[in-house]
Write a structure and sequence with these properties.
seven-stranded mixed beta sheet; alpha/beta; single chain; four-stranded antiparallel beta sheet; Aspartate Aminotransferase, domain 1; Aspartate Aminotransferase, domain 2
């Protein structure tokens, strides 16, 4: 039996996913397939490394050792053919914190920041909470797959955007952007002097026949205006350890970013975040390959289930991530009605598409990173709610 079939009780572990549906959805005891964390244990090498550190028993102040940077550099070269210098790395407790710090570092209050909806909710939140102006160039849905409207994208850049937030791979749509698309993004951002912040937190979970390309890896010129965010949190289910890396080749930009972190009092990472991140990138590849195969099977099962039992719902073609973006617009119900049916009738917690901005209306997001039996249960509840 695959390790990913193991059913793990996450109650009484302060799990946001399993224990906060009352606070988030207004009702307890919902089947949780919403927030983006997995119900799987991380690689044994990670657990072993953390256990060894616990057994040492002293948890004083720590610094990020060169071995951690080395593990990240080696991982990026092997998985993504991107040669990174360890000096380009900075560290944050999470990608959202890094997004906020980047907005503070490279823009001023009142500046315009560009994004592409529907997109990861904190993109909107961090722009607004830092008193910047959201400029949106919506993605277009073509044959159940998101594409970039480059005419709209250029018009948006002409408004004087200082920073573009790129979600690569895309959350919630699962698109893995092509080299051609990324080069066009880079060309236009270069033309209008706009920096690119590339959130690549899902970059390791890519389905067969697709390949993630770090936008900063495409050219020396482009790399000078890119801030790349990565973390082991999605890849290895380590979100609770709170560790991410920020890759900035441009020395001046890196200095600005590190000064922002310093003003915020950020100087190092959690001890266990460091340990877990290094162990995952050093020894987690075999586990990851098995995970991707398992997720691909879960996705296939879910799509077949929808075709058979809920043909009105279309699953947007995902090329990466463990998230399914479900188009429910043919049901002809409002978002409020859809939410009510899922919660009251299906007892199922899914992310409402409206959270992801314009273009998310009529959609819901489903997390399939759980044992297959749990996916089956969630789909059964989906059918009960909407059939």
């Amino acid at each position: 039996m695959t390790i990913f079939n193991e059913k793990i009780d996450r109650l009484k572990t302060s799990s946001v996913k399993w224990e906060q549906t009352k606070e988030i959805f207004g009702e307890a005891n919902l089947w949780p397939m919403w927030v983006a964390d997995m119900d799987f244990k991380p690689p044994q090498a990670v657990l072993k490394a953390i256990k060894s550190r616990v057994e040492h028993g002293v948890f004083g102040y720590t610094f990020v050792p060169p071995s951690t940077a080395g593990a990240i550099v080696d991982w990026l070269l092997k998985r993504h053919q991107w040669e990174v210098n360890p000096s380009w790395l900075s560290y944050c407790s999470g990608v959202v914190q890094a997004i906020s710090a980047a907005i503070q570092s490279f823009t001023e209050e009142g500046d315009r920041v560009l994004l592409q909806s529907p997109v990861y909710t904190p993109f909107f939140e961090m722009i607004k909470k830092n008193n910047r102006i959201v400029v949106n160039s919506p993605l277009t849905l073509v044959n159940e797959k998101y594409e970039i409207d480059f005419a709209s994208f250029e018009e948006s850049l002409q408004q004087g955007c200082k920073l573009f937030l790129l979600c690569s791979p895309h959350n919630p749509g699962g698109r893995v952007w092509t080299k051609t698309e990324l080069l066009k993004i880079g060309e236009l951002c270069q033309k209008y002097n706009c920096l690119i912040l590339s959130d690549e937190i899902h970059s390791d979970i890519i389905f067969k026949d697709y390949h993630h390309i770090p936008v900063a890896s495409l050219s020396d010129v482009l790399s000078e205006r890119v801030i790349t965010l990565i973390a082991p949190s999605k890849t290895f289910n380590l979100a609770g350890l709170q560790a991410s890396a920020v890759i900035i080749k441009n020395e001046e930009l890196r200095k600005q970013f590190n000064e922002t972190l310093s003003r915020q009092g950020v100087f190092s990472l959690n001890t266990f975040g460091l340990i877990g991140m290094e162990a995952a990138y050093r020894e987690g590849e075999e586990w990851l390959e098995e995970l991707i195969d398992y997720l691909q099977e879960n996705k296939k099962f879910a799509i077949n289930f929808l075709h058979e039992h809920l043909p009105e719902i279309t699953c947007i073609k995902s090329e990466g991530t463990y998230l399914l973006w479900l188009d429910c617009r043919k049901l002809n119900v409002s978002d409020d009605e859809l939410r009510h049916l899922l919660i009251e009738k299906g007892k199922l917690a899914l992310e409402p598409g409206t959270k992801y901005g314009p273009g998310g209306e009529g959609f819901v997001r489903m997390n399939i990173a759980c044992p297959k039996e749990d996916v089956k249960e969630g789909l059964k509840r989906l059918k009960r709610a909407l059939k």
